[in-house]
């Protein structure tokens, strides 16, 4: 085990040459930022936060987070306006940049091969000063640096393990373990192996309170615990810098469940594949469909110009909306998958693409010539008032059902991608070549197979 972990660490730990490059780029970015801040004459202090600032980053993972801290007396509207203006000016000086969005807009710049996030925030001293979600980041960095005590490599091992089993990231479309959560687990349990060995205890214990907020601020901390317990989250880690926040609030049961089983598997049979997974084997999805005797319905549409944080949650919402709406129409939907390559897509595995539907057909008044013809042509006929009615069995296509659901606005879709979905091509048992691997991994369940 020790030899395996040492070998993994050699591959994921930045070399001295890489460290020197990172530090050199950080100094250049800081120098440019201070230069622009001086031109604007703002009372702003730049802070490096995140894994580069805490030295918990993996080799090759060099995203720089530079926070532009404004004084607390600056109104929020002014911080957003001036902060974005300042970040754009720094981004322009660095080279290429784009505007991204979180609680408020920030700038993502690109400098000498490095991605640099320039984020306006408040210069806070403690949790009572926090006004926006990003304000805690400076406090997080300071707290981790104070408590990590040289266990940086243990963080690297756990982070790479999380990445390898596909549970890393707190983004809304990932719902996994954040970098900060990874660091706190190492601080709590001591090492990578200790975290894995406590995977069952962690779930039973449920609450982790590293800063002792339940004693220092019992009312605030208990409110957090109750709120998160009511939300039925798998883990509650009271933020060491803010008793109002659960660091693990974004973690889903699915992602914790994957960690639960993978930790057990690793301890029973350690392997580098947990850190460096082999590519999933891909075969012919059409053969698989014939074997399973199910059908594949794919909606293919132009990818909206949205960042993943916005696009993927809306694709998820739309896919689940189709699942629910089609179930109500009598189609059994086994599973859904969504994402994008050249175009955005929603895949649905269903039991059939045609189904019988009963239709009620109104006819003419029974005492007319037309009424007699109606009576002779139909098998089931009855009278309601003076008019004849009959029952007719028709075949309904899932394509027609989807089109009708969209036309009548009877399916819950992501607001910003709704227009694109209404223009979607609907493919049956076929996907473009670039999606053939996705289709196989989806239909085979290898995309999510815990034993794979």
TrEMBL record:
Enzyme class name: transferase
Cofactor(s) named in the record: Mg(2+)
Annotated positions binding ATP: 51, 54, 140, 159, 168
tRNA nucleotidyltransferase substrate binding domain mapped to chain residues: 153-276
Domain Polymerase nucleotidyl transferase residue range list: 41-140
GO biological processes: RNA repair; tRNA 3'-terminal CCA addition
Family annotation (InterPro entries): CAA_C (IPR048833), CCA-adding_arc (IPR008229), CCA_tRNA_nucleotrans_2 (IPR042090), NT_2-5OAS_ClassI-CCAase (IPR006116), NT_sf (IPR043519), NuclTrfase_I-like_C (IPR011068), Polymerase_NTP_transf_dom (IPR002934), tRNA_NucTransf2 (IPR015329)
Positions of the CCA-adding enzyme C-terminal domain: 294-424
Keywords from the UniProt entry: ATP-binding, Magnesium, Metal-binding, Nucleotide-binding, Nucleotidyltransferase, RNA repair, RNA-binding, Transferase, tRNA processing
Top-level taxon of the source organism: Archaea
Binding positions (CTP): 51, 54, 140, 159, 168
Catalytically driven reaction(s): a tRNA with a 3' CCA end + 2 CTP + ATP = a tRNA with a 3' CCACCA end + 3 diphosphate; a tRNA precursor + 2 CTP + ATP = a tRNA with a 3' CCA end + 3 diphosphate
Function: Catalyzes the addition and repair of the essential 3'-terminal CCA sequence in tRNAs without using a nucleic acid template. Adds these three nucleotides in the order of C, C, and A to the tRNA nucleotide-73, using CTP and ATP as substrates and producing inorganic pyrophosphate. tRNA 3'-terminal CCA addition is required both for tRNA processing and repair. Also involved in tRNA surveillance by mediating tandem CCA addition to generate a CCACCA at the 3' terminus of unstable tRNAs. While stable tRNAs receive only 3'-terminal CCA, unstable tRNAs are marked with CCACCA and rapidly degraded.
PANTHER family (alphabetical): CCA-ADDING ENZYME (PTHR39643:SF1)
Name of protein: CCA-adding enzyme
Protein source organism: Thermococcus barophilus (strain DSM 11836 / MP)
Source organism phylogeny: Archaea, Methanobacteriati, Methanobacteriota, Thermococci, Thermococcales
Gene: cca
